[in-house]
Amino acid sequence: MSQKPILLYTWRTPNGQASSVYLEELKAAYPGFDYDVKDLNIMTNIQKEEWFIKINPNGRIPAITDRKRNDFNVFETSAILLYLAQHYDPEFKFWFNPNTDANNYSEMLQWIFFVHGGLGPMQGQAHHFRLYAPEKIPYGINRYVNETKRLYGVLEIRLKDRDWLAGPGRGKYTLAEIKTFPWLRYHENAGIETLDEFPNVKAWLARAEARAASKTGLNVPPA
């Protein structure tokens, strides 16, 4: 039996779930593709151990090792998604051909990095200051909760009359969704109790969560 090409190091966080959701989509789309999972319970700080620092110098999950390509390591969620697309999604099922469909490819990248550099970090800080900071700092809480709400508003505008973030017409389900929607599932932790004020986002999140690969990938590793 041949070895599964990808080894995913992960835990159940928005970034970890983005990687496992895409891997599950690839499993469903390409018969024969599969991956292994190594659970890294980040509450134990296993991700800071020397063996893992050799895989990801930043000591965070997720990361992957591509056994098919001389044990090549990739860290950072957006880099992982794009790497997997380049090497394991040859039919462009979840992305766009950068050579023949450059504008849509760029559009997808813009939304990926909107989350990578904006929504993800801001929501993460809102979560931290609300639930984990050793003392309540109203300025920090208000700053990050309000900025997270503003960024949700950007998604709300984008999704008006669209099903997905990138692509022509009503859009195509791509890496932009896979990068984004796991964060939105944790909106309550960031101080946004309901998505009712963002109806387009709420409907979009429901569509993304309803996919079979999402249901499986969101539970990697199993609780």
Mean pLDDT: 97
Topology, number of strands: 4
Largest sheet: 4 strands, mixed
Class from helix and strand fractions: alpha+beta
Number of H- or I-type helical stretches: 8
Strand order of the largest sheet: 2-1-3-4
Describe this structure in words.
Helix 1 (14-29) packs parallel to helix 3 (77-88) and helix 4 (102-131) packs antiparallel against helix 5. This protein is of the alpha+beta class. The model has no long low-confidence stretch (mean pLDDT 97). The longest helix is centred in the middle third of the chain and has 30 residues, at 102-131. A four-stranded mixed beta sheet has the order 2-1-3-4, with helices on one face. It has eight helices and four strands, in the order βαβαββαααααα. This is Glutathione S-transferase. Belongs to the GST superfamily. Residues 101-223 form the GST C-terminal domain. InterPro entries: Glutathione-S-Trfase_C-like, Glutathione-S-Trfase_C_sf, Glutathione_S-Trfase, Glutathione_S-Trfase_N, GST_C, Thioredoxin-like_sf.
How do you describe this structure in short?
With 223 residues, the protein is α+β, with helices and mostly antiparallel strands. The chain has 8 helices and 4 strands.
Question: What descriptors fit this protein?
Answer:
single chain, alpha+beta
Question: Would you spell out the secondary-structure blueprint of this structure?
Answer:
Elements: E1 6-10, H1 14-29, E2 35-39, H2 50-53, E3 63-66, E4 72-75, H3 77-88, H4 102-131, H5 138-158, H6 175-184, H7 199-210, H8 212-217
Parallel strand pairs: 1-2
Antiparallel strand pairs: 1-3, 3-4
Domain GST N-terminal: 3-92
Protein name: Glutathione S-transferase
Domain GST C-terminal: 101-223
